[in-house]
Amino acid sequence: MDDNAEFVPGDGPSSGISVSLTAGTLQAIRERVGKRGVSAYLERAAQRQIERDHLDELIAEFDRVNGPADPAAVADKRARLTGSAPEAGVAA
């Protein structure tokens, strides 16, 4: 693989690496996907983590520009989205 080529997550050729996991984590993955599905499972997990990292960066930038979100407003919107009561301990 050309180390200078740039690809977005999920794109480009496959490249083998060595990854160390705890025995329990590897066992749980294999129970879900079998021995031959481990690489694909880890690829999807890495892609999701990259997406979460990007979202964290966007939220941090939003907070830097606009200030942190109001916890009561967040609880109210969460309650409307989930159809549940606002969280206890948060003023409405």
Class from secondary-structure proportions:
mainly alpha
Number of helices: 3
Number of strands: 0
Share of helical residues: 55-70%
Distance between the termini: 55 Å
Overall mean pLDDT: 91
Report on the structure:
The protein starts with 22 loop residues before the first helix and ends in a 10-residue tail after the last helix. With 92 residues, it is mostly helical. The chain is built from 3 helices and no strands. The longest helix has 29 residues, at 38-66.
Topology:
Blueprint: H1 23-33, H2 38-66, H3 71-82
Please sum up the structure shown.
This protein is an all-alpha fold and 92 residues long. It is built from three helices and no strands.
Label this structure with key terms.
single chain, 92 residues, mainly alpha, 3 helices
